[in-house]
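Fold this sequence, please.
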Amino acid sequence: MSRQFRQWVDEYQNQAWTLARYLLKDAAEAEDACQEAFVKLWHHSDAIDPDKIRPWLMRVTRNQCLDRLRRRRPTEEWADWHKPDEGPGPSEDLAVQQLGERLKHSINGLREPYRSLVVLRDVQQHSYEEVASVLELSLSQVKVYLHRARKQLREQLAEVRP
């Protein structure tokens, strides 16, 4: 395995897995999608501009996830949320934990491409340009869609406030 490829895996595997986990809502399936994306990176690494590896990998990971979602049986509900494998630490405040769960549930309730936009931009802190590249949207589309997604999240979270 080349040193450069290993560096990319170390640097981007958590971001790719987080995106896949949000989209697929299943840790094992997210891991498989990421593995397939990294295999594609291995095969195409010579043809990709090194400065654009991260957006390329996020786009391939997202496409792997969308393909898996399309292959799922129609009886599976998108609204089902499975809690992440990692639990909160004992020092976390209950209110913060509950808000985090509500936020995850609200993100899960967003339709595509809104969900991907929120995960890539707000959760993983990608630049607007990278998000546009990953989702193959114009910069203005990213900004408009992200505004709409955030508005939907605010409305959903306002409904559950005590």
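Residues 32 and 96 are 31 Å apart (CA to CA). The mean pLDDT is 82.
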